[in-house]
Amino acid sequence: MATFPPRPKSLRKRPRIRANPLLAGHFRALGREYAQNWTLGVGADSPQTFAVFGNQLASLVLDFARQADPRIPLSCTSEVRIQRACRKFFRDNPEPVCPGEPEEPARSNLGLIGDLLGLDAVERSVLQFMATLAEDSGFNKFVAHAGEFAMAQAHTLVAMCTQQPESDVRRVLSPSGRLISSGLVSLQERACSLDDRFSFKQGMGDLLTLPALTADVFTRHFLPEAKTTDLTVADFAHMQAEVSTLRSILAAAVRRRQRGVNVLLVGPTGTGKSALASLIAQELGVRLHTAGIADSDGDAASPRERLSSLLLGQRLFGGGDGILLFDEFEDLFQRSFASMFGGAGASTAVMSKLWFNLLLEDNPAPTVWISNSVQGVDPAFLRRFAFVVEFRVAGPTERARVLSRHLADAEVTAEDVALLARRYESSPAQIATAVMAAGLITESGRPDREALERVLGPLNKLVHGEKSTSREDFDPAPFRLDGVRAKADLPAIAERLSTWKEGNGVGVSLCLYGPPGTGKTEFARFLAYRAGRPLVYRRGSDLLSMWVGGTEKAIAAAFREAQSEGAVLVFDEVDTFLRNRENARASWEVTQVNEFLQQLEAFRGMVVCTTNLLHELDPAALRRFVFKVEFAYAGPVEARVLFDTLLSGCLSASLSAADEGHLTRELTRMRSLAPGDFAAVSRRVRAMGGRASLGELLAELADEVSVKRAPKGAAGFA
């Protein structure tokens, strides 16, 4: 057996290796092999014959010795002595040094991983080398001295260190090889150093040192099983057709072991995408594994690490043993920092377009991809999915159904359930959680309406903003049709539309226009109330998106929601996106109008649009409205109705006959009074104590009028 020659005095004591003890044997063998190959090349007369190892042997050995024993002096004399000693050793012992076996438990754990993934002898040897390179800092220093090299030279280096044929190493480290395709080793084409060229999967080092690694522990480390859900198919009744199709596709994929099955679930946060995936997996009796929730330190895993875990899952569950789940799909398409400032950043920060397309075409295990939004994702990727489910917030009818099921034993009436369903836009999962939390608030443990509102209110405000409870919960008491002035018979319109039914193939549309505060939006909500229909309400600003095509999608989604709910669809401030196309400065301004017109033509329900700027609307859009109703400022009659309805309760004293006359004269004198002015004064007075004199109320109304530009003519119509 070959031995080292006598050492210089400074190295008389054999240094103790302080590298990772589980990989120390491998460290020593590969270090000696590396030094041997360096000597055979650079130690010759022509130093350029082996350009891969162009550094000084002395620095290599000194780094290794310093890693082993910090007491070794780093003098020039020591370098020469070490160099001479190593050259003599390799001259006297020319036979190759085979890589050593790692110590336990690393040896057994590497064997287990090899068995799980079906690795052959060459793949196991290369995997052992990659583990040493990634986990042993001393050996990594050795390899770093090789300098920069091309991919071909990297294969040569790995072949020498593993004592495997270079052709086999190239096969093993090819993109189609099991080490790369399983995600254990990641290939970086543009890297220069070996440890950057081949990245060992994060967290593998921790597993190699476990005293009793099992297949279950290995799987749960990288692919934890998704949480089960208490939701049922009934909670997704508003998506019955999509859920049925999704279940059929996944069931057939598992049963037939079909390759290339990928489905995409898209929708806002909290709409139940993950819960639906768990529900279907439960019904099919298979496990749902999530790709890379956290890294080895417990932090959120990077998109690259999660993708690596997904590849590993494809190798482990490709035989129909499970379904894979990849959440936050959009993270794979984040633009690089440079591209945000006009640089040449890549449009996909994690993988190439070709590689991802190949993954979607040939993945062994069916995969559910989840995304909150696909804005910015190349349509070429989206076309690869076998099926796409677009989630939306459930309507009041579906929310009431879910609430009723969860509140079967609660102290909540059917009327309360209907009110909660209209008021709070919550997903089935959010409703289930809210019912549980409300039960914790009450002493009896049974949720009531007050407890549910205390839970749902803050959550709904956080998720949906201030608009969440302000539009669907309509109180008809303060609204009086005879307090609204319009150039049409509003009671007749409301009566006719209250009995209108779909079925004749034609929808009904209204455009309500006029100054702000004249009652347009309240009348639209009143129409839904009279007809007994749900209300789908959208402000113009709710629809605008920063992404190209985003506004068009939001418009289409609003029409779809109203159609499925049988609801009255209200677009408030429609002039935000429905402006005259002749004045458009960008193409997206035209496509927004086009999308609205196409949806309006196909819609078979009731849609109401309101605007303060009729003259700015697109003429083609105006022609498509069945009713165009002009609203105006209140006249004396309407003003008195509004005062009696909204402000009489704020009076600090009853009105005398003289007060009645004074009130009539003042209301007649004021121009530009609108229902919104009376509502604003009522809110302000109640906020300040709830009572005021007649003079104070009239002064408040005058202030409201003064901030508006009074019309040139008298109030009303000519």
Under CATH at level 1, the class of the largest domain stands as Alpha Beta
Query: Which segments are poorly predicted (pLDDT under 50) over 5 or more consecutive residues?
Result: 1-31, 33-79, 335-350, 467-471
Distance between the termini: 115 Å
Rg computed from alpha carbons, rounded to a whole number of angstroms: 37 Å
Give the integer mean of the pLDDT values. Answer: 78
Instruction: Please count the helical segments.
Output: 31
Largest sheet: 6 strands, mixed
| CATH H-level superfamily title of the largest domain | P-loop containing nucleotide triphosphate hydrolases
Strand order of the largest sheet: 8-13-9-12-11-10
Structural class: alpha/beta
> How many β-strand stretches?
13
Q: How many structural domains does the protein architecture include?
A: 5
CATH architecture assignment name of the largest domain: 3-Layer(aba) Sandwich
CATH topology of the largest domain: Rossmann fold
Strand content: 5-15%
